[in-house]
Amino acid sequence: MVAMPHPAAKPAPTRTDVARLAGVSTAVVSYVVNGGPKKVAPATEARVREAIAAIGYRPNAAARALKLGSSEMLGMIVPDTTNPFFVMLAHAVEVAAAERGYALLIANSDASVATERRHVESLASRRVDGVFLSSVLFEPDLRDLESADIPVVLLNHSLDSPGFASVGVDLRAGGRTAVAHLAEHGHRDIGLVMGTTTGGGLDGREAGWLEGIRAAGLVPGPVIRAPFRREEGYRLGLELAASADRPTALFASSDILAVGIVKAFHESGVRIPEDVAIVSFDGSPEAEYSWPGLTTLAQPISEMAAAAVESLVGGGPTTNRIFAPELVRRASCGC
């Protein structure tokens, strides 16, 4: 059997093809595709765009990046793309970046230091114009980005990092507010469900919880630790439901842990808030649509994202921007 030769692949449409079909110069096509630098008459622009659609022309992004000295691409690394907080944060950053003409490449470190490091190296080698990093470490390794002269903004970062811009929320204030609010409802035994991270270290929410306990003249309740996952909250909820000395109130350091606890309590016959009141942290949609609705310390996602993008590509200050969380009252605390 004689093998038949494969037909030659049809060459991709070029800017010259568009210009020929539209009856304009290649420079005019470039002005339309790149939005300048010269203006094109509306009728001419419409003709060029019709030609682009007709032949399926796609601009060469690599060539454009080389010409502009910019990839018009930003990178973002988060520890868990299934966590509603990081989903909201990534979306808000994507919207804010798009308003300035940048696309966003999102990578998931899966709360792994090694994976985070690999993503940092990959983004540095791709020569993105900047990186948003929500690190699993309190002091992440940024050598590759520094050596490539790629700016970085640390997200979900409440500590001052000299030389780097960072955006975060006042975790301590959130912890104090949660305890004070539960104490206002008459609770004297307030426990903490603290999410754990790979990097370790004292989380500001735990420090704030303890400060709130002391300010209210209370004895610290139990501190229970688990990774930031729904299933871990569910497991802890089952353990608490079966415990004879469970606290009457809980501050959960994340909505994602709290919704797991709520499910476990429902299954175990523990009433919320009659038996155990709950205040959580983040302000995700899951908190609103939980039953009962979760009282939560909401992070101002849109404002934080706008500040991060401004710092990275808008010439904003290289400082630590800290935003205040807002107490959103719902039924889980007794309101």
UniProtKB/TrEMBL annotation:
Residues 13-68 form the HTH lacI-type domain. One of its GO terms (molecular function) is DNA-binding transcription factor activity. The keyword Transcription applies. Coiled coil: none annotated. Keywords: DNA-binding, Transcription, Transcription regulation. This is LacI family transcriptional regulator. It comes from Sinomonas atrocyanea. The lineage of its organism: Bacteria, Bacillati, Actinomycetota, Actinomycetes, Micrococcales.
